[in-house]
Structure formats: structure tokens, C-alpha cells
């Protein structure tokens, strides 16, 4: 069975190491745990994919233009349906889950996220 993959790349920073990349990447698409030294896992990528999809569908960001962890922590999630009525509710819910500030509330992996996005 074919399983499509979503891969996010930043071609300007390939091979420079995670720490160097985090210095130059926009914090707008980084998971909250990326701002700390506690480390990240696949759920941080799910967050980035969720924020990217949110932005592609609405032209907005789910928490506005954040610049720091404190900034992100103080802002509530804005439902995608606030900006677009054409996205199915199940897709909006999946994106909201992917954009959760709490890693344990996000999807564990890309296949689970994709299945939720396509569940209509």
C-alpha cells in the first residue's frame, strides 16, 4: 500500500546541524519544545506540518506571529474555521490537534496525522 509522505525542507540550511538551523529558522513554525533544550521528536515535525497546512489553507498562523516561547504560551489557538469555511471539520480538527502546544496531544506520527486529515 502506498503511503504519501510530507517532507519539510529548508534548503538554505541543510547539513548545518540542528542547533545552527534552529538559530535561523522562523519561530513561527517551530514547536514549543524547540525553544527549550529538552529536545524534540517526531511530534515537533507534526506541529510544523500542522502550522504549515494551517497557513497554506488560511494565509494566517494558528497563534499569530510568535517570536518566543513566552509569546507562544500566552496566545490561544485560533480555529482554522475562523478564516475559511471550505475546510471540512474533520480536517480542521486534525490540524488543530497537530498544532497543539502540548506534544502528547499531537499525533504520534505522520501516518496517523495523514489518516486523520483524509478521514471525511
* Large-scale geometry: globular
Q: Which class do the helix and strand fractions yield?
A: mainly alpha
Q: How many whole angstroms does the radius of gyration measure?
A: 14 Å
Contiguous runs where pLDDT drops below 50 for at least 5 residues: 10-18, 20-24
**What is the chain-wise order of helices and strands?**
HHHHH
Could you report the average pLDDT, rounded to the nearest whole number? 80
N-to-C CA distance = 20 Å
Helical coverage, percent range = 40-55%
Q: How would you characterize the largest beta sheet?
A: none
Kindly list the characteristics that best describe this protein.
5 helices, 40% helix, 120 residues, mainly alpha
What does this structure look like?
There is one protein chain. By secondary structure, this protein is mainly α. The protein is built from 5 helices and no strands. The longest helix has 17 residues. It is globular. It starts with 17 loop residues before the first helix and ends with a helix. The relative contact order is 0.17.
Explain the layout of strands and helices.
Blueprint: H1 18-24, H2 42-58, H3 69-73, H4 89-98, H5 110-118
Helix pairs in contact: 2-4, 4-5
Brief digest:
With about 120 residues, the chain is mostly helical.
